[in-house]
Task: structure prediction
Amino acid sequence: MGKTIEAGLILHRLTVTGRVNRILTIVPDALVVQWFVELARRFNLRCRIFDDAFMAAQFQPAAGDNPFYDEPLGLCGFSFLTTAPPALLSRLIDAGWDMVVVDEAHHMQSGGSLFQQVQQLSETVERMILITATPGHLAARSHFARLRLLDPDRYTDYGQFKTQSRAFGQVARIAQTLADGRHADPDSLRRISHLLGIPAHTIKEKLTQTAGRQDLIKTLIDRHGTGRVMFKNTRRTVGGFPGRRAHLVPLDVDGNGVSTRRRLNLEAMQDFGLQPVSGETTFKDDPRVAWLENYLRDHREEKALLICRTSGKVNALYEALEKRININVGRYHEEMTLVQRDRNAAWFAEAGGAELLLCSEIGSEGRNFQFARHLVLFDLPPDPELLEQRIGRLDRIGQTGLVQVWVPFVRGTGGEILTRWYHEALNAFEENGPAAGWVTSRFFGELAALIGDLERKATHARLDRLIRGGRISVIRQQRRIDLGRDRLLELDALPPEKMAGLMEAIRDIDGDPSFLQWIEPLLDVWGIVMEPLAPHVYRLRPDHRYADPLPGFRPSGLTVTTDRASALIREDLGFLTWDHPLVSGAMEHYLGSGKGSAGFACWAAAGEPAFLLEMVFLIEAIARPNLTVERYLPPTPFRVVVDHHLNNREKDLPEGLSDLLTDGSAALFAEIMPVVSHRIPEMLEAGRVMARARSRPVIEAAHQAAGRSMDDAVSRIEALSRVNAAIRDREINAAKLERNAVLSAISSARVRLDAMRLIVTDTVTP
Result:
């Protein structure tokens, strides 16, 4: 699904609206670069990576300054927290972060070093996001410990948490009954009435209406589910995935093949951590290479992604294929620079580019290749979650065709054991099973023992028994998922009609033809030229006028696209939108420069001579950014036109650009100013009075809308507290304080003069 994207959407929204300014993101060491690239490319959030090089350059243990204060967006790996000296950690924790984000949060175990450091950070920040793809109910105590990081007041007792968790199954069954449109039996009616505190006859009436049924589901999940703390999107609820098909390719070695099998078994033991990784990678007499050659010859017209464990395998495969077949092959592994990886990934994405991209494990995380449909799993990781990440490079949102998963393996090796386990016990090649990780962890020791003892004749019988046990465990765990908390979270997802509305709004913004009409001249003001390279693709370069540095722009230039589909496929292109830092920065610079805020024009109008003052006022509510008052009262412009008799002439004067209006000369301005200057203050005040009068109903409407919305929010929390002991008085009081602050800010909104233009009619000019 792309957890990084979901988190990035939240971070982007909070930073754009000013609700947060300082964010620390903590991720597994192997994902630091991926997160850095993803946040920069997708959301224009430029993080500073905290690592040994950063600290060697800036941190002095004896210094009093905190080096983290100067970095509003920080990114670090797990090891940075677990191995850093206490003095450094103290400065990191005291750096005044507004939000902390932890990816792959299931790696944090209560009592561990990583958990302890994150716990200290959680005590200093108001906002926190923990991201995990591992179902929490499969490790309840660890899950409870992580929930305590989010809200220690709500999650105080593990025993109480277990009691509540058991009740989720009952709530989920009732909610599913309502969602399926089935009639509730008398017993279910009584339970719903008890859970919601609503009379049974009212519930019975609501059940006869689709809207009423949905309202009951929403209220039930809201009051007794975990959706206010946990959020989950699943493939089942999102939909639109074409699916995938597994192609298992059993292979034999030539002759007795004893040495080849032993080498492959040693490789499997190294992958499982049973043997240290050593020696040079070689594919001598490996039947998988011969199969790959034949596969590539048969699929020349289709791009394929191949993922294996190490960069050594990638390089050895590349050399082996060079000798066997003439095709375009790209490489992508951790020993390459970021620029090299980007170029090869872009080459793979291009039509007529690389036909095959060889990736080490680093390619299974963070990069998207959904334009391809063929995935070759040259080896298999011992972790089904990592396997799902590999397949997820292709099987993700945006994939239009059935994903073909090719799994070549040699009979009698560890590859066969893992292939059969994943396919026959977990069905992991063709389905995304949330229980797969837990089941594999439970049987990990037995799988490792089989791989370490492959030469025994009883191996196949033991593997058959293991597969049967794994299949039963998967069924049981999946039943728990379907009946428990996860089903409640899925039912609490955004309704399809709202999702469709959001998507349509995004399409409208993407297709807005006025974007280029405004952006091209705006950038030109600051000396940035837009050169078209291809449809929707532009090269932004500075010319001799470029002087003021703008955010999100490099003096060496920038290649961008205004097409979302192109931006998703082409990693080398920036996506130019209204909220791109370059665009927002250029607008802020322009508005703050005074350009366009005052003007002088002549109006080709018949009638008596007249002087007019055209004014633009803005309604502004001054409030803390985290209140986001603009939800209810965005900056609203009012155009007012007053003549020298203080009459309203708004309907008479053409609005905006018009052929009837021409720029007034400096000489004419100097000539008429002595005549009209004494009237301008009175005209300004008259315009201000008109703007205030027009603003009052707008402010009142915003006040009423905010009052209704926030009163509903307070009432909801109060209703929750009556049936859910986890809701604290502090939460209710916080909601009331926020409501009062927002309403007070709206009530205090005022009009501000933003721009003005003096206009004279042609009959005035000599």
About this structure: The two ends are 70 Å apart (CA to CA).
